[in-house]
Structures are given as structure tokens and as C-alpha cells.
Amino acid sequence: MAEIERFDRVVGQDGISRIHQEDFCQALGRLPEAKYESRGGPRLTDMVGLVRRQSTMPADDLLALADFAIVNLVAGAPDGHSKNISLLLAPDGNRWVAPLYDLATGLAYDGATVDRRVALSIGGERIVGQIRRKQWDKAAALLGLPADRLVDRVRTLAGQYPDAFEKALSAVADVPGAEEVAARTVPELRRHCLSLLQRLREG
């Protein structure tokens, strides 16, 4: 297994230093119970406002917010709430969005028993089957990004994600349960991504 390096630690001459991290729920002054938008938690507009106010690299971090929304939709990850994205606050005053973490697909489970919604609405919509080009256009306007650029990122990830997911699973094929996860998830993930691409074409 590959070694995982922490993104909130820096190794220097004086040893290991910690980079302070605040998730968006915490940074926006919400209680942990309000981490979900559906329970009164932060919306994308709140996150954009936080980045604009606090980030020292806002252009990169607005793209990071876009990617957070995109990957949770494409991966079929229903748990992309405001505690699963963070700001890093360095001692020198720099602040930026941390690498994305805790991304897990829900597509391995029976669709009849899993809520097929995203935690963070896209263009005002959380139901996966209702997210089309016009919702991404609204999200792009909120993020201050060209709509075509944002949609291209969605299209690229949706086109490449199933193969990348299958490849990642093959790298851990000797782990108990990996084969079962692949069998249950990969076909559903391919259908899911094809459906996303179709809805983008529909407008």
C-alpha cells in the first residue's frame, strides 16, 4: 500500500509543524449538526463568500470549490457537506482550501434505499437527476467562472472517473472485499456518469 502524506503537517529543520485547519462548517460559525445544507448548513454561496473574504489565493480556491461540487456529483458521493472541505491557515497568514478528502461513493448500495441527492446543491438543485447544464451555468455565475470552463470540467471528470475508479480498485485487489466493491460499484458508476453526460447535452 502507498504511504499517505498528511497535508496539514510540514517537515522542517526544527521538526514537524502543524498547519491549522478549519472546516467550512466551523469557519462559517455553524454547529456540527448544521453541516448539511438541508439542515440549515452552509450553501455554495456561503462557501464562495468565505473564500473571497479569507483566501490568499481566491482564484485557485474558487476552482477548488467547483471541483468539490463536481467530484461529489460525479462520484455519487452523498456526503459532501461543509465539514468535508476545509481551509488551511498557515502561520505566515496564507490561507487556502485544503486538498479534498473523505470522498466516498454511495453507488455501491441499493439505489432504492440510498438518497440519490448531493449534500451541496448545484445551481439550487440537490436531486442528481435534475442537475443539468442550466444548474451548472448558475453555479458558474456564483463562482465567477466561465460557464463553458466549468461544464468542461464536469464533462472531463464524468468521462474519466469510472476508468480511474476501476484502476484504483485493481491496485488493491488483494484487499478483502475489494472485488465485491468493484462488482457492485463499477457498472453503476458507469451508468451514473453516462447519465450525467446525457443531461449536460440536454441543457
Automatic annotation (TrEMBL):
A GO CC annotation given for this chain: cytosol
MF term (GO), any: protein serine/threonine kinase activity
Record-linked InterPro entries: HipA-like_C (IPR012893), HipA_Ser/Thr_kinase (IPR052028)
Domain of life: Bacteria
Pfam families: HipA_C
Alphabetically ordered keywords of this record: Kinase, Transferase
Coiled coil feature spans: none
Domain called HipA-like C-terminal: residue spans: 4-162
Keyword set includes Oxidoreductase: no
Keyword hit for Transferase: yes
Family per similarity comment: Belongs to the HipA Ser/Thr kinase family.
Protein name according to UniProt: HipA-like protein
